[in-house]
Amino acid sequence: MRRITRIATVGIASAALALSATACGGKTSSEAGSDGGTKAAIAYDIGGRGDQSFNDAAYAGLAKAEKELGVKGTEAEPSEGEADPDKVQRLTSLARAGNNPVIGVGFAYAPAIAEVAPKFPDTTFGLIDDTSKTGKNIANLVFNEEQGSYLAGVAAAKVTKSNTVGFIGGVETPLIKKFEAGYVQGVKDTNKNVNVKVQYLTQPPDFGGFSKPDLGKAAAEGQLDAGADVIYAAAGLAGSGSIEAAAKAKKWAIGVDSDQYNQQGLAAYKESILTSVTKDVSDAVFNLIKSVKDGKPQSGEIRYGLDKDGVGLATSNPAFTKMADVTAAVEKAKADIIAGKIEVKTAP
Predict the structure, then answer these.
(1) Fewer CB within 10 Å, N or C, the chain?
(2) Across the chain, which distance is largest between two alpha carbons, in Å?
(3) Are residues 180 and 208 located together in one domain of the fold?
């Protein structure tokens, strides 16, 4: 797999050269793909690969496509800094190099994909977590995050002993507010007497709340000091800091996006990760790549919810699965959401 660490703001030609210069196996961008093989690329969100969460889930989908479909994968990391101004150049370079599809990981790629996609009508662009920008060659890969978060709220309300739980959002955006809304509703529907403390790490246009574990740790410590004994963080890489804080306080953490109990980088804290709200970003990425390889590229909105296991609640921690009353409540809530008996809010 080819991995690009950064593409600096030095013009399209130089960016394309950066692609070829870091390619494994020594092929240039023009040479790679000349054998007719399918090439696919993902451009990471803030925090990049190694966040133990959102970006790593996207990488898993690309790795699966390499293994099962014989696809040649390329990864592109975000620029240094929180603004990351190089998205248009990054996507353009990936498309020019023959990658199809080119997938932007996260809603922050929406403006760049809207600008670049029309210039490459034969290339499919995947946009994860956003439906604001559409086009014939744009696939909007979106999830019902609020549904998985509702289940986390049910679990939190069932296990809390202090009747105080916490929610930490990386950046206060409409997407992260979906996580908050579902979680709070799940808590209150299960036990209206449980207090939910809500905190966001940064406000747009500062997106550093997705990339700074120290901010997540400090926020979690504040909630723990205020009596919270379960903390759910939807904060990307910053969420690892909240997990660390909860583990050191011997309280429960709830992970997000990936099954964080099984993330190697969080192994030291895994026993404190009660569960995780999962988004099947991996399969969404894989399915898009497969659709292009099969000659039937996806486009438009492709939504993943509880009914398709596109979101869910992880059961990797044996301590969680042994809590029969908790898991029963979660399963009932899941069935009721799928049946339409519970309508989960998408805004607080």
Answers:
(1) N
(2) 63
(3) yes
Contact between 144 and 306 under an 8 Å Cβ cutoff? The reply is yes
Count of residues for the chain?
Answer: 348
Structure tokens at 253: 């953490």
| Full domain range(s) for residue 293 | 2-144+281-306
24 and 235 Cβ atoms separated by less than 8 Å: no
**In the chain, how many domains are there?**
2
Distance (Å, rounded) from C-alpha 291 to C-alpha 272? 38
Handedness of CA 21, 25, 26, 29 (dihedral sign): negative
18 and 71 inside one domain: yes
Task: Look at phi and psi of residue 81 and say left if phi exceeds 0, alpha if psi is from -120 to 50, else beta.
Answer: left
Tens of pLDDT, residue by residue over 258-310, are 999 999 999 999 999 999 999 999 999 999 999 999 999 999 999 999 999 99
pTM for this prediction: 0.86
CATH of the domain at 18: 3.40.50.2300
* Closest by Cα among 107, 98, 104 to 126: 104
Q: Which residues of the chain have pLDDT under 70?
A: 2-36, 80-84
Q: Is 339 exposed, middle or buried (0-12, 13-18, 19+ CB in 10 A)?
A: exposed
**Environment class of 26 (CB within 10 Å of its CB; exposed 0-12, middle 13-18, buried 19+):** exposed
Q: What is the pLDDT of residue 242?
A: 98
Average pLDDT for the chain: 90
Q: Token pair for residue 176?
A: 């992260």
**CA–CA separation, 244 and 270 (whole Å):** 9
**Can you tell me the distance from the alpha carbon of 316 to that of 106, in angstroms, rounded to the nearest whole number?**
26
pLDDT in tens, 150-162: 999 999 999 999 9
- HSE-up of 200 (CA within 13 Å, CB side)? 15
* 344 belongs to a structural domain: no
Please check whether residues 275 and 166 belong to one and the same domain: yes
pLDDT the model gives residue 200: 98
